[in-house]
From TrEMBL:
UniProt keyword annotation of Nucleotide-binding present: yes
Originating species: Pseudoglutamicibacter cumminsii
Zn finger spans (unnamed): 3-34
Function: Negatively regulates transcription of bacterial ribonucleotide reductase nrd genes and operons by binding to NrdR-boxes.
Family, similarity comment: Belongs to the NrdR family.
Domain ATP-cone residues, every copy: 46-136
Note accompanying the cofactor annotation: Binds 1 zinc ion.
Sorted UniProt keywords: ATP-binding, DNA-binding, Metal-binding, Nucleotide-binding, Repressor, Transcription, Transcription regulation, Zinc, Zinc-finger
Molecular function GO terms recorded: ATP binding; DNA binding; zinc ion binding
Cofactor: Zn(2+)
NCBIfam families referenced in this protein's UniProt entry, alphabetically: transcriptional regulator NrdR
Protein name, as recorded: Transcriptional repressor NrdR
């Protein structure tokens, strides 16, 4: 790490702390040459490997963008989408790999989206899983009906019971 002030290559760590999200480490450093202090942030990289074989950095904003299309017109807030993206990232990072297949990301989206909003889940699943017939939709709806308690948020469970 080069000092941002004098470009000297050596510095020592004065303080290290985990960031609020727990995925990064904030380090205060002091330059060995000029004595000035600066901060660095270290994160573990996570890459998504596309079907084409190209790897790109994991992006919560891409998760939000893709899922928001399925949630269009549904009672899903930006905060809900941010929480979903965080949950997806946590699920993927828990696997402990630096690279994950794009298909795995899609599968990680399905479970929390199913809990968040059933209609958005069906929309996303129909594209992601390539529904081709009405039977595909019927099978997905049947699966949702067989497990309604695990798919609905608590505020929707009480509404559906009335």
């Amino acid at each position: 790490m080069f000092c941002p002030f004098c470009r000297h290559a050596e510095s020592r760590v004065v303080d290290s702390r985990a960031t609020e999200d727990g995925y990064s480490i904030r380090r205060r450093r002091q330059c060995s040459s000029c004595g000035r202090r600066f901060t660095t942030i270290e994160t573990a990289s996570l890459s998504v490997v596309k079907r084409s074989g190209v790897a790109e950095p994991f992006s919560r904003s891409k998760i939000i963008s893709g899922v928001s299309k399925a949630c269009q017109g549904r009672p899903v807030s930006e905060d809900d989408l941010a929480m979903l993206a965080q949950e997806v990232e946590e699920t993927i990072r828990a696997e402990g790999r630096a690279e994950v297949d794009a298909h795995q990301v899609g599968l990680a989206i399905l479970r929390p989206l199913r809990r968040l909003d059933q209609v958005a889940y069906l929309r996303f699943a129909s594209v992601y899983q390539g529904f081709e017939t009405l039977e595909d939709f019927e099978d997905a709806i049947k699966a949702l009906r067989e497990n309604p308690e695990t798919t609905l948020p608590p505020h929707q469970r009480t509404l559906s019971a009335t």
